[in-house]
């Protein structure tokens, strides 16, 4: 298969998909092979090229969709709220609660929260979406004494940030954050509806109350790299390349 053939197909599809809104389902390999009169290998290579450019997102068992990769901004002056961060980036957020279980805090989580191991806590597990496509999956650990009503509250309000504000009287802010690029394990791939081995961001954060400094929750979140670009902002803003020197 000449290398230029699949790239030509990919370039044609790029111009077409640019006219479609994010989250639009597009043709699969079979339809592309028929349309361009090529074999499945060339069609597959063209789709893989679009994935490499992060212009489409493949959902395991659900097909291929146009994608708009957004920035997930992490900074000291931004609220540690998933939904607000996604909206500020111009996308539509949605989260689905998979479980909210009372569990003893694991040792590593307890260390992050300055607690003794095996203290009572809640593990809130959620899958989150941008423009109705899976983007994030992971856990938020909240000590029971911080928010005893969490299992009830999460049924009525999907934002943990808002629940902490309204029911715990807290003003959540980031105490610490770290991010790394990892490969999706079987469990993470199932949560993100991607393929095992796909690149994913792992973001771990501790949030505290701005007024008292009390540690509120620990988040361990995996994010699809084809859905978001994790960006840390430290200090002042960086001047644009066009700014006078």
From TrEMBL:
Gene3D superfamilies with a match to the protein in the record: Chorismate lyase-like, Winged helix-like DNA-binding domain superfamily/Winged helix DNA-binding domain
Domain of life: Bacteria
InterPro entries the record matches: Bact_HTH_transcr_reg, Chorismate_lyase_/UTRA_dom_sf, Tscrpt_reg_HTH_GntR, UTRA, WH-like_DNA-bd_sf, WH_DNA-bd_sf
Pfam families for the chain: GntR (PF00392), UTRA (PF07702)
Keywords: DNA-binding, Transcription, Transcription regulation
An annotated GO BP: negative regulation of DNA-templated transcription
Annotated ranges, domain HTH gntR-type: 3-69
SMART domains registered for this protein in UniProt: HTH_GNTR, UTRA
Keyword Secreted: no
Any GO MF annotation of the entry: DNA-binding transcription factor activity
This protein's name: DNA-binding transcriptional regulator, GntR family
